[in-house]
Amino acid sequence: MGIVNVTPDSFSDGGRHASADSAVAHAKSLVAQGADLLDLGGESTRPGAAPVPVEEELRRVLPVVEALASQVAIPLSVDTMKAEVARRCLAAGARIVNDVTALTGDAAMPEVVRAGNAGVVLMHMQGTPATMQRAPRYENVVLDIARFLEARLHALADVGIAAERMVLDPGIGFGKTLAHNLSLLARLGELGKIGRPVCLGVSRKGFIGRLLDNRPVAGRMAGSLAVVCRAICRGDAQILRVHDVQETRDAVTLLAAIDESREAES
């Protein structure tokens, strides 16, 4: 899942693709690099980010969805927690809603997803982007998040969203300390017991920088690849949400080739 931030303030590439033309060109580049999905967002959810009005988020992201819907063959996901943004983007050709609140942030969102027959990524976040990193606490971070995601899966199934349309995301970095993030990654396979695919988003995140002597964003690719390779090798994640599509696809391709060779010899 290639990331396209149509924002001036995202933590990794804020402002780089803030215009519709630039975002569309970047998205098409990610497709050429091997993206299977594109995730388009018009509101930053970095730690400390302030909310964006609906009209501004639509101004940023809707033209990009409209342009790409007729230019690329892969599914488009809209990264939003606002029902009106999701509704307009689904009408324009998006097929997935990636909601950092797991469809709890806007009361109208479950019906928008249901009526639009959309796929949905349900992510866990403690607090809001503006507050989530102030003092995150859990009794047991892995069990707490697994229980939350399973509860959301059942609640949304009860209102008519088929379980087959839902994917789970533990929300690495969203209301978690460094220790929380590492515990989640070490035990990520436990989320798979819920029975739905797991989407993993660790690309260039702050915990990687902290583990690498406060490495800046531009120097975190190797760390990002290490995390996703471990998850793939263990079968812990089925979707990788990344900035560096070509490099990630190269790594996954090599891992798959090694596995195929081992299976052929057994």
Question: Describe it for me?
Answer:
The chain has 266 residues and is α/β, with parallel strands linked by helices. The protein has a single domain, classed as TIM Barrel. It is 43% helix and 11% strand. It contains nine helices and eight strands. Helix 2 links the parallel strand 2 and strand 3. The longest helix has 21 residues. It is globular. The relative contact order is 0.11. The model has no long low-confidence stretch (mean pLDDT 94).
Helix content: 40-55%
Distance between the termini: 32 Å
Strand order of the largest sheet: 1-2-3-4-5-6
- Could you state the order of secondary-structure elements as H and E? EHEHEHEHEHEHEHHEH
As residue ranges, the low-confidence spans are: none
Form type: globular
The fraction of residues assigned to DSSP E strands is 5-15%
Structural class of the helices, strands and pairings?
alpha/beta
| Total DSSP E strands | 8
The CATH class turns out to be Alpha Beta
In the CATH hierarchy, the third-tier topology is known as TIM Barrel
What kind of sheet is the major sheet? 6 strands, parallel
The mean pLDDT is: 94
In terms of topology, how is this protein built?
Blueprint: E1 2-5, H1 20-33, E2 38-41, H2 54-69, E3 76-79, H3 83-92, E4 96-99, H4 109-115, E5 119-123, H5 141-158, E6 166-169, H6 178-186, E7 199-200, H7 206-211, H8 221-233, E8 239-240, H9 245-265
Parallel strand pairs: 1-2, 2-3, 3-4, 4-5, 5-6, 7-8
